[in-house]
Amino acid sequence: MRLACTISAFFCVLVACPGAMSSHPDLQSASEVVLRMNRALREQERELCRYSVHRRYILRNRHLEPEATSSVMMNYDAASGKHFTITGSQHSGGISQRVFKNAMEAEESASTERPSPSEINSQHYSLSFDGIETRNGRRCYRIGLKPRERTKYLLDGVAWIDAADFALVRVEGAFARPLSFWIGRPLFQQDYGRYGRFWLPSHSRSLAYVKLFGESELEIEYFDYQLPTPVPSKSHYGSVLPPVTP
Fold it and tell me: What's 245's DSSP letter?
């Protein structure tokens, strides 16, 4: 969930420019669900050493009409983290260019941090099991997230964890601490999809009411993942299922 760490950079640019228990027999608590999710994530990180993806950044604000967009290629390497290359833009003026640039630089910097300050775990959150729901076509455990500390890296919200693969399917909520007097606590949502057998981001959205600028939204679309081949046929962290289109 590292992308959540970049949202403060996004909104600060605008400010600076006036104008219950589980039914699964093996699970005992929400903490156990999250523990298994993080084990799955560590296994994926060991196996997925590099990949690339196309992204489209979209910035919406009534002062920035029409919406500004930027097309980006993101390359990830386990040794050096994420690297971004802008491949095109539309209606992207000075403010929107700075928004996109700051968001990418913040994510690039956070991509090598271990452990991540935004990781969903029992050290960062008081966790609650809130039932089983379907999200993005998947049967998921709904886990309530209450931050143990009010930091800009954590969310007060909900996570949905896949009941078969123990992968994060969606996370949403408000930032645990106001990012500044000007922007308060933005709302953040990120969805994940299964590509082959790896779970990776498919869409994200952040929304805030920024003083002087009004409602501002940053949306990121993900497409054309390029994954290493051949992909191993078995996994140590979840069952092997047909690909799911996010």
Answer: -
* Residue 216: per-residue pLDDT: 86
Residue 243 counted as domain residue: no
Q: Is residue 233 part of a domain?
A: no
Span 154-202, pLDDT tens digits: 999 999 999 999 999 999 999 887 766 556 678 999 999 999 989 999 9
Establish how many alpha carbons lie within 13 A of residue 235's alpha carbon, considering only the half-sphere containing its beta carbon.
24
Domain span including residue 67: 2-19+24-225
Its pTM stands at 0.79
Count how many Cα atoms sit within 13 Å of the Cα of residue 34 in the half-sphere of its side chain. Answer: 21
C-alpha to C-alpha distance for 1 and 38, rounded to whole angstroms:
12
Task: Report how many domains make up the chain.
Answer: 1
Three-state DSSP state, 28 = coil
Within 13 Å and on the Cβ side, how many CA atoms surround 240?
Answer: 7
